[in-house]
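Quick one, probably user error.
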């Protein structure tokens, strides 16, 4: 234990905000009851009340890297950034084309969503390419890992496992072996002796990440770091680390639905507009190369209240089925429910339908659902939601080959959306033959074959077209 007076400070477990006193609401991220007390060395805490993000303990470790003279950029040799593939095209795409040596990639997500499975499979793929990989687990015994490995199959001996939580031992082994990639599963279980606070605390995960960062930059080992998103405030969440790492990916999805989305929220080496889609199966995760097809599988035919719309996930169009169920309300106060989309948006669209089209929805309960456990709040799904509600209210099915997208404004106008061409292209590819879209989105692009495009400028026109 290093010398130095010990004191305690308070950290927000959501965002890592540091404060000398306890507060009910974190001034950094406005979350309630997330402040916890942690012991720190007096020196490290000297940054005082501000955001620890700028002067956090983890960064001081990085600064110890040998002092060098400033250089000019022209003296730097130009070279293509060498990246290596994870063997998953969906994961490579989110990473911006593969893993950059020496980078730190944080993979966050709810416990049980499949982070360990994803990384074990990626590690298996990379070991197959002949790279040396070390998988460090602080959560599971080697037997538990073996059980998972048996499920996914094909794990080679060049993939090494280390069940360890002591950071010093881990860094020593990694420095010696110099693998191409190390996986730290999870950062919340890692323990750095020199930090007083318990594993999983804000200061502990920061300090540990800082040391891994330095190791990565010095040795060129790339790191995947797993960070659990936690519901109750017992351990620090991955957001505390976002500013320190090169890339932040979140693995999301409904635990009870089988599809999972890997979303980039920060990437120093690529765009954050990309997503990867996976499906959890009995033998691990499988890539979903055609998400639209997957999302539309099992769609009812000829049912009222169902329509397909197209949302963009970054640069990728994704077709989603919107379902609505509208039925007479038994109580004075009608019930509204939205699953997978914004509740307030649904209420607003229903108010617009009532006011502009005279549909008396205030006497009706309404349930709106994006099928397949999909979450989408892009305004382009508005037109789909409004038409699904209308179709259910009239109990009249919409043609199965119809797709609709567009933002709906408060006067019932259908407003332009971005990337109309990609959306229409995806719809045509999936066999849709009619597309309702904002009239103002029709200009300036080449129309694909086989799909009729109907531009509408307000909800009334769209409703009239449907008769
Ligand atoms: P896991 O990777 O352990 O989640 P995390 O590391 O994010 O906590 O995944 C756990 C879940 O995935 C578990 O509920 C079982 C399920 N699973 C499958 O359905 N199929 C599989 O092949 C594997 C390995 C796991
Ligand atoms: Mg795990």
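Nope, works fine. Designed sequence:
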């Amino acid at each position: 234990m290093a010398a130095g007076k010990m004191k305690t400070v308070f950290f927000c477990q959501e965002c890592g905000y540091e404060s000398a006193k306890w507060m009910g609401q974190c001034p950094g991220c406005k979350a309630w009851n997330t402040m916890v007390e942690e012991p720190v060395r007096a020196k490290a805490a000297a940054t005082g009340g501000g955001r620890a993000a700028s002067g956090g303990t983890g960064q001081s470790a990085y600064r110890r890297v040998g002092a060098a003279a400033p250089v000019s950029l022209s003296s730097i040799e130009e070279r293509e950034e060498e990246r290596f593939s994870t063997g998953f095209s969906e994961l490579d795409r989110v990473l911006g084309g593969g893993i950059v040596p020496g980078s730190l990639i944080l993979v966050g997500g709810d416990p049980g969503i499949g982070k360990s499975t994803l990384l074990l499979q990626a590690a298996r793929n990379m070991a197959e390419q002949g790279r040396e990989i070390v998988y460090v687990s602080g959560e599971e015994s080697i037997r538990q890992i073996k059980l998972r490995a048996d499920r996914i199959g094909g794990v080679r001996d060049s993939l090494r496992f280390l069940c360890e939580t002591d950071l010093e031992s881990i860094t020593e082994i990694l420095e010696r072996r110099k693998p191409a990639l190390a996986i730290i599963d999870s950062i919340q279980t890692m323990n750095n002796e020199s930090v007083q606070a318990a594993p999983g605390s804000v200061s502990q995960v920061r300090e540990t990440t800082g040391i891994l960062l330095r190791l990565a930059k010095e040795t060129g080992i790339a790191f995947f770091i797993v960070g659990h998103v936690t519901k109750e405030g017992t351990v620090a969440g991955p957001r505390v680390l976002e500013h320190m790492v090169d890339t932040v990916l979140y693995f999301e999805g409904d635990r009870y639905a089988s599809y999972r989305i890997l979303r980039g929220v920060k990437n120093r080496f690529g765009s954050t507009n990309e997503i990867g889609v996976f499906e959890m199966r009995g033998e691990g995760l499988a890539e979903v190369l055609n998400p639209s097809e997957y999302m539309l599988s099992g769609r009812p035919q000829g049912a009222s209240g169902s329509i397909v719309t197209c949302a963009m996930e970054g640069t990728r169009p994704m077709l989603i089925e919107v379902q609505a169920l509208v039925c007479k309300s038994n109580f004075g106060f009608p019930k509204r429910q939205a699953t997978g989309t914004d509740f307030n948006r649904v209420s607003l669209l229903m108010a617009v339908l009532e006011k502009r089209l005279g549909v008396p929805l205030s006497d009706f309960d309404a349930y709106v659902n994006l099928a397949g456990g999909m979450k989408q709040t892009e305004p382009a799904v508005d037109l789909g939601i409004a038409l699904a509600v209308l179709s259910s209210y009239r109990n009249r099915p919409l043609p199965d080959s119809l797709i609709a997208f567009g933002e709906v404004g408060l006067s019932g106008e259908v407003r332009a959306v971005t990337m109309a061409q990609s959306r229409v292209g995806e719809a045509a590819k999936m066999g849709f033959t009619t597309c309702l879209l904002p009239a103002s989105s029709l200009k300036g692009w080449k129309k694909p074959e086989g799909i009729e495009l109907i531009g509408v400028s307000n909800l009334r026109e769209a409703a009239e077209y449907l008769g």
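The chain has a mean pLDDT of 88.
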